[in-house]
Amino acid sequence: MKRIRIAIDGLSASGKSTLAQGLAKSLNYLYIDSGAMYRAVALFALREKLIDRQGQLDEAGLTAALDRVFLTFRFNPVSGRGEMCLNGRNVEMEIRTHEVSRHVSLIAKVSEVRNKLVRSQQQMAESGGVVMDGRDIGTVVLPDAEVKFFMTASIEARAQRRHLELQKRGRKVTLDEVTANLTERDHIDSTRHHGPLKKAEDAIVIDNSDLSIEQQFEHMMSLVQDHLNG
Ligand code: DC
Predict the structure, then answer these.
(1) Residue 16 CA, closest ligand 1 atom number
(2) pLDDT at 58
(3) pLDDT per residue over 6-39, tens digit each?
(4) Closest protein CA for atom 14 of ligand 1
(5) Fewer beta carbons within 10 Å, N or C terminal of the chain?
């Protein structure tokens, strides 16, 4: 059976990663969370004080420091997925904080950051058998991916989903704050010059506002199977 590349792009909190992980697990493929890599660079920038109190990024400083950023995924047999490591240290928890979410779009606009991460994502997908999710996977990272999905959902559905997720992790953040963060990130991610969030022409749109995870999974899996059998 051939081992293909599946690209999943979409808005923040549209449920991409849950479905990408589910598909990867069923197919016994590698799951690559490209957003985690941008988040890890944002964490690095915060730690190195390259973002000031006003939220201004020292872009030249970050560009110069990029060769000190080593990103790897380390497989965790308990969670069954690769966890993000920054310079050899597991940062899977730190990269999910609201603080990192607030600054990550700023980091993802920097061309040098994108070039570095896109190269590394392409290398990881080289031998196939991967599901990768993000914003520019079907358009820039893997334009030749055999199957591409573009996920979307209403802002209300997405904010509720992300709010619940943060609450489960004990984070004190209001639904309004989450809605504001998602709206702002959607805007920055869709309007940036380099690698904006955009549907690839050949991507299949999945609007999951009113579909359960199981329904979406079945639908996506049957499209993948059609491709594998076709
Ligand atoms: O999927 P996520 O919310 O964890 O992504 C975090 C940020 O990283 C998001 O605001 C946009 C950026 N990102 C990107 O620009 N390109 C990608 N391929 C993945 C994420």
Answers:
(1) 1
(2) 97
(3) 999 998 888 899 999 999 999 999 999 999 999 9
(4) 135
(5) C
